[in-house]
TrEMBL record:
It comes from Flavobacterium alkalisoli. Pfam families: Peptidase_S24. Residues 95-212 form the Peptidase S24/S26A/S26B/S26C domain. Keywords: DNA-binding, Transcription, Transcription regulation. This is S24 family peptidase. InterPro entries: LexA-like (IPR039418), LexA/Signal_pep-like_sf (IPR036286), Peptidase_S24_S26A/B/C (IPR015927). PANTHER family: HTH CRO_C1-TYPE DOMAIN-CONTAINING PROTEIN, PTHR40661. Coiled coil: none annotated. Residues 1-12 have a biased composition (Polar residues). GO terms for molecular function: DNA binding. It comes from the Bacteria. Residues 13-23 have a biased composition (Basic and acidic residues). Residues 1-30 are annotated as: Disordered.
């Protein structure tokens, strides 16, 4: 399970561990994804070996793991996509689903309680989400890469509840088959159509009939987990 913690949470938890502070070697290793902003991996490794301690003032300078500016080479990067009407939740547990095992996006969104999540993520300060999926393909590259996780909220009323210009999971009816993609949804000049736009400029925009949309889910956040070697 991928779980993020704020600097305050880390400080509170670590202070209870037999008086050890955050900078002790075991705790530094335990909290490897939460490297101090601007730190160097080699320098941090040296600090661990020397049992170097870090003050509370230094701990306060930790960069929040839910910040979209987190260095991608240093662990977890969470990019929230917040609407003005969204209410953030201090903490929530979001199930991660395997869409292929769920028989497609339509079935997943219509019957979430009948699906078995493959894992869970716990992310602070995000809007309410219904679930999460792993990204495949490169249509939204470089914003999204294959293997990233997107957290989503199901759109119940497709005709009336689209926020134009936002990013969505889209299920399309293509000759009786379901095609699932992630696109920006924009207004079309054609009546009864919408425009699907990719971040990757190698993918052309596509005009589709609104009636071809079988399911829609608003992307609330993207999550990229970079392993340190």
């Amino acid at each position: 399970m991928i779980k993020t913690k704020t600097a305050n949470n880390l400080t509170d938890e670590n202070s209870k561990e037999n008086g050890k502070d955050f900078g002790s070697k075991p705790n530094m290793q335990k909290n490897l994804p939460y490297i101090i902003e601007g730190g160097d991996i080699a320098e941090m490794a040296s600090d661990w070996n020397e049992h170097k301690k870090y003050s509370r003032e230094t701990i306060k300078n930790l960069q929040r793991p839910d910040s979209p500016n987190l260095d991608r080479s240093k662990g977890l990067q969470v990019n929230p996509y917040i609407l003005r009407t969204d209410r953030r939740k201090e903490m929530q547990v979001i199930p991660i689903y395997n869409m292929e095992a769920s028989a497609g996006l339509v079935h997943l969104l219509d019957n979430p309680n009948s699906q078995n999540p493959i894992d869970y993520i716990s992310i602070p300060n995000l809007p309410n989400c219904d679930g999460a999926l792993f990204v495949t393909g490169d249509s939204m590259y470089p914003l999204l890469k294959s293997g990233d996780i997107v957290a989503y909220k199901n759109v119940q009323d497709i005709k009336n509840d689209i926020f134009w210009g936002e990013m969505y999971l889209v299920s399309l009816d293509m000759s009786g088959e379901e095609l699932v993609t992630i696109k920006y949804v924009q207004k079309s000049e054609k009546a009864g159509h919408i425009k699907l736009v990719s971040q990757n400029k190698h993918h052309q925009d596509k005009e589709v009939r609104l009636s071809k949309i079988r399911a829609l889910a608003l992307i609330k956040a993207s999550i990229r987990y970079n392993l340190l070697y």
